[in-house]
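Hi, here's the filled form for the chain we discussed.

Project: internal
Contact: R.S.
Residues: 106
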Amino acid sequence: MEWTRMMRGAKTILEDCVSLQKEEKLLIITDTLMISIAQVLMAVINEREAAPVLIIFNPREHDGQEPPLPVGEAMKQANLKLCPVSKSITHTTAIKNATNSGAHVY
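And the returned structure, exactly as it came back:
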């Protein structure tokens, strides 16, 4: 996908879906197959003067497999998480623990 279209899509996500605020502790979690999407999100977030943290890990073997333990621990510290990953981590204990603390995960 071309960079311009990806940037437009990332802006839509951050403005319309997430409503990113400067003071939020933002964590982007991705795997090595989805780095380009994470990079676009980082570029758009940096335009908004927020301070995101990016974590990259090896792709999971199947949907629902837990991310590495340090990822789950980091998710507890951020109040907003964006997860462009190739295999879903939505229904994992790590995500449930993060959302139980009031965090938003996209």
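Let me know if anything looks off before we file it.
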